């Protein structure tokens, strides 16, 4: 299948692969996580600021490269393969499309320009069920004086530590959706605002819990409300789901690469274990799942980009986006399976040392277990796909 990967896309992929191989190898990842969940600030300054990766998918009008979802997916694949300890997914893959959709092209320009320049890190709060609908939003906003008062909490917020912007979906009086932006640094001494770092299984992506105990905010902290806010959340969730699948694909590829390299060097009974038929079969199964996931992810990225090109006011836009969501759900399931199976097999085929701290399979196993629960995991994707099996081709009208 032709996924129309241009020369520019290939250049982005190859340069990212080479740069991360040199600056986000196993030793660098371990240094970044030695003291607990943390970001590699040096790597972030390089990829976000100097290399401009956060603007890869953004329009040229805001300082981006205009390579869209396919270009971003290729970057995410490389970042996942090297477990890069940077808040790229939260910033470029979630916050950017959220702001772009909720605020529109004009309203979001000033925000996207800063993201494209690598000046800001962003984190996002998801509904309590990890989905994309406001019915599960656990934070409320009550109008008060010249602003709002926020109440609620979130058990897990990706990349919240060190974030310059925190995107918070909330429900206004009467149930109207709204999107707020908070600046954690400015609220550091505010007793009614609390971000607490969590010690999680996968230390390569920090998590924090959020608590808002009647936090007063100005009126301009509310960036969007109504349909715009609801559409922004949905768009960010699906785009984030796609890019998470690309990240899982990269991690699965690394599990395969690590296993093949080890099996080629490990000698048993006078032969490299890679020559044993049973080992060959298990590596082959890993490869089959990785390649299937790659086809699904690349196809979903192309479908998303095609949907973005359709006039949103046209009925065709709804059908195109519904098709893209189906592709993303399928890619999410395929990538999740490839990574979970690949991480498991990497540990098994490394033998008695596979689970030890000194070898890398354990890092990817932890990522596989953690990522399988983010944004609803494969379960949410399968449930979405099941709706189309049950409802037929018109299910998109109520999706």
CATH architecture of the largest domain: Up-down Bundle
Low-confidence stretches: 393-399
Average predicted confidence as pLDDT: 92
Describe the main β-sheet briefly.
8 strands, mixed
Give the radius of gyration. 21 Å
Pattern of helices and strands: HHHHHEEEEEEEEHEEHHHH
The portion of residues forming beta strands comes to 15-25%
> What is the highest CATH level, the class of the largest domain?
Mainly Alpha
What sort of overall outline do the alpha carbons produce when their principal axes are compared?
A: globular
Number of helices: 10
What structural class is derived from the secondary structure elements? alpha+beta
- Separation, N- and C-terminal Cα atoms: 28 Å
Query: Fraction of residues in helices?
Result: 40-55%
Count of domains: 3
GO molecular function, one term: flavin adenine dinucleotide binding
Family: Belongs to the acyl-CoA dehydrogenase family.
Enzyme class: oxidoreductase
Keywords: FAD, Flavoprotein, Oxidoreductase
């Amino acid at each position: 299948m032709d996924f129309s990967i241009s020369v520019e896309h290939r250049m982005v992929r190859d340069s990212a692969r080479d740069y991360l191989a040199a600056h986000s190898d196993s030793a660098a990842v371990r240094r970044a996580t030695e003291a607990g969940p943390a970001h590699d600030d040096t790597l972030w300054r390089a990829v976000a600021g100097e290399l401009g990766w956060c603007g890869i998918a953004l329009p040229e009008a805001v300082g981006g490269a205009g390579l869209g979802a396919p270009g971003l997916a290729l970057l995410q694949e490389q970042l996942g393969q090297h477990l890069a300890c940077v808040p790229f997914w939260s910033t470029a893959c979630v916050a950017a499309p959220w702001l772009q959709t909720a605020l529109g092209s004009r309203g979001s320009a000033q925000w996207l320009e800063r993201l494209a320049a690598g000046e800001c890190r962003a984190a996002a709060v998801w509904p309590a069920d990890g989905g994309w609908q406001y019915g599960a939003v656990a934070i409320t906003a009550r109008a008060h004086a010249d602003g709002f008062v926020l109440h609620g909490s979130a058990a897990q917020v990706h990349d919240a530590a060190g974030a310059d912007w925190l995107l918070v979906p909330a429900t206004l009086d009467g149930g109207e959706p709204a999107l707020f932006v908070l600046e954690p640094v400015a609220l550091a001494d505010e007793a009614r605002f609390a971000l607490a770092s969590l010690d999680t299984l996968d230390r390569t992506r920090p998590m924090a819990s959020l608590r808002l105990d009647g936090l007063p905010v100005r009126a301009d902290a509310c960036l969007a409300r109504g349909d715009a806010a609801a559409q922004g959340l949905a768009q960010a969730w699906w785009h984030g789901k796609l890019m998470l699948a690309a990240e899982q694909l990269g991690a699965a590829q690394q599990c395969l690469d690590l296993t093949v390299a080890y099996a080629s060097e490990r000698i048993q009974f006078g032969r490299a274990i890679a020559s044993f038929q049973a080992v060959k079969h298990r590596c082959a199964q890993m490869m089959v799942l990785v390649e299937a996931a790659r086809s699904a992810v690349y196809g979903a990225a192309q479908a998303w980009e095609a949907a973005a090109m359709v006039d949103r006011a046209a009925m065709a836009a709804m059908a195109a986006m519904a098709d893209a969501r189906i592709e993303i759900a399928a890619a999410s399931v395929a990538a999740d399976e490839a990574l979970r199976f690949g991480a498991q097999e990497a540990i098994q085929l490394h033998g008695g040392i596979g689970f030890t701290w000194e070898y890398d399979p354990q890092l990817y196993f932890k990522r596989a277990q953690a990522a399988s629960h983010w944004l609803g995991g494969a379960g949410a994707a399968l449930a979405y796909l099941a709706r189309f099996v049950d409802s037929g081709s018109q299910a998109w009208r109520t999706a």
